[in-house]
Amino acid sequence: MRILVTGATGKVGSRLAKRLALRGDRVRALVRDPDRAAWLREHHVELVQGDLLDHSSLDAAVRDIDAVIHCAAMYFPDDASERGHAVNDRGTQHLAEAARTARVKRFVFTSTGLVYGGNGGRPAREDDACAPSPGYFASKLATEHALLAMEGIDVRILRLAFVYGDGDPHIAEIVPRMRGFLPRQRISIVHHADLARAVMLVIDTPSPSHHIYNVVSDEAPDLVALFAAVGAPPPDGSAAEAAQVDEVLLDGRRLREDLGFKPEYPRLRDALAADA
């Protein structure tokens, strides 16, 4: 399959692009600076220069492509970043419009489970109401809405749990921010290898267009276990009220029932045991 991956120099996109190339797909990466992304060529990934905010630069990126996997996004913590909204909202729409014009067969958008907003530990299903915090998470939901309203293009939305593993320092990076959370607060997670499995199912398997799937492992560990995975002491519970915003669990049944998704690492301890 001929696949365009955006965000291919980021945590999710880089690992996904390499896995797709490894299984034999012809992978192209949209990058702003080909020199910075030159290492991707070692993994048989073609580079094409472009920018989501430059609509005209996207035509070459989507030419002769079967599927777009859109991972690129700009993170911003509040609602004050005009550029963040522009990249995440308008940039995604530019890419989807170019893909539609080029008759790309499928457009996959990687969103986040945090679009649901804090749900107190009740696993959220794809049809549940969403109430994300302002800024990045709200921009992800706005982009979902824009894509789902587009006609003439086959869209899938993947709402990702907390992605970890495969050499990604993600867990260690969030320890300082979650230091004040409650020790027994649980978090939905998914390993990079299983995220790639989900993407492959979504681009390979016939299924209804304009569908949303939560991508999540079978077990949500508590923060004691998550912190211990990187040798950190448990959180101290000093910011329990603030932690409620991030207390979001995901229900993964739709992806399993519709597409037969089965994670390689259903539990955190499985990845630890495999040194993954």
Strand composition percent: 15-25%
Q: What is the CATH class?
A: Alpha Beta
Mean residue pLDDT? 95
Q: What is CATH's topology name?
A: Rossmann fold
Q: What is the CATH homologous superfamily assignment?
A: NAD(P)-binding Rossmann-like Domain
Give a concise summary:
The chain is an alpha/beta fold.
Task: Describe what this molecule looks like in 3D.
The protein is of the alpha/beta class. The protein has a single domain (2-165, 189-218, 250-264), classed as 3-Layer(aba) Sandwich (Rossmann fold), CATH 3.40.50.720. It contains ten helices and nine strands. It has helices at 11-22, 59-62, 82-101, 136-148, 170-174, 192-204, 223-228, 240-243, 253-259, 268-273; strands at 2-6, 26-31, 45-49, 67-70, 106-112, 155-160, 162-164, 189-191, 211-215. The strands form two sheets. The chain has a seven-stranded parallel beta sheet with strand order 3-2-1-4-5-6-9, with helices on both faces. The chain has a two-stranded parallel ribbon with strand order 7-8. Helix 5 links the parallel strand 7 and strand 8 (189-191). Helix 1 packs across helix 6 (192-204) and helix 3 (82-101) packs parallel to helix 4 (136-148). The protein is globular. The model has no long low-confidence stretch (mean pLDDT 95).
Attribute tags:
276 residues; alpha/beta; Rossmann fold
SSE map:
Blueprint: E1 2-6, H1 11-22, E2 26-31, E3 45-49, H2 59-62, E4 67-70, H3 82-101, E5 106-112, H4 136-148, E6 155-160, E7 162-164, H5 170-174, E8 189-191, H6 192-204, E9 211-215, H7 223-228, H8 240-243, H9 253-259, H10 268-273
Parallel strand pairs: 1-2, 1-4, 2-3, 4-5, 5-6, 6-9, 7-8
